Amino acid sequence: MEANDNYIKNVLKNNGYKYTHQRAKIYDVFLKNRDNHLSTEDVFEYLKKDNPEIGIATVYRTLMLFEELGILYKISFDDGVIRYEIKTSNSVHRHHHLICLNCGRVIEFKLDLLDDLEAEIEKVENFKIVDHNLKFYGYCENCNNKKERINEK
Q1: Integer-rounded Cα radius of gyration of the chain
Q2: pTM over the 0.85 mark
Q3: Which of 40, 67, 96, 128 is 20 to 30 Å from 75 by CA-CA measure?
Q4: In terms of domains, do 122 and 79 share one?
């Protein structure tokens, strides 16, 4: 999957949806923020200055549609906020996240050692796995160093 205007046009058309100015602008926000996990409100904030005609309800509906069509991944970091990130061409699975319990920082990591586990689960449970999502909770380097300095006192 190549992330560009032609890609989004084809996905929408092949699924019976129109390619609109609003959908193009919303997709463009994700293209320009590939490394970010954006909420509906984040996307709306990026858009509202240069695109005042796009309302938050349009953003919300478009993000739901893009997630349904496999253009975006929906992510929850268990903080009550739904976020989205663009699905990349080289991703068989979603990438994984480290979540700092102190500062809330989210760190992506690409190491994926779950292929053998998935194969075993599919075999034993007769269950076809199409994706997985893994989150580790702990303390980022900065917060961990601060905790260690406090404990030394």
Answers
A1: 19
A2: no
A3: 128
A4: no
The length of the chain is 153
Annotated binding-site residues for Zn(2+) read 100, 103, 140, 143
Q: Among 91, 107, 131, identify where a domain stops.
A: 91
**Measured CA distances, 65 to 11, 16, 116, 130 (Å):** 11, 12, 32, 19
Q: What is the CATH number of the domain that holds 107?
A: 3.30.1490.190
Distance, in Å, from the CA atom of 55 to the CA atom of 107, rounded to the nearest integer, reads 30
Q: Domain holding 44: CATH number?
A: 1.10.10.10
Domains in the chain, number: 2
The answer to whether residues 80 and 112 belong to one domain is no
**How does pLDDT run across 99-146, given as a tens digit for each residue?**
899 998 888 887 777 888 888 999 999 999 887 778 889 999 999 888
Q: Which two tokens stand for residue 103?
A: 């500062």
Range of the domain at 15: 1-91
Binding-site residues for Fe cation, please?
Answer: 132
Annotated binding residues, as ranges? 100, 103, 132, 140, 143
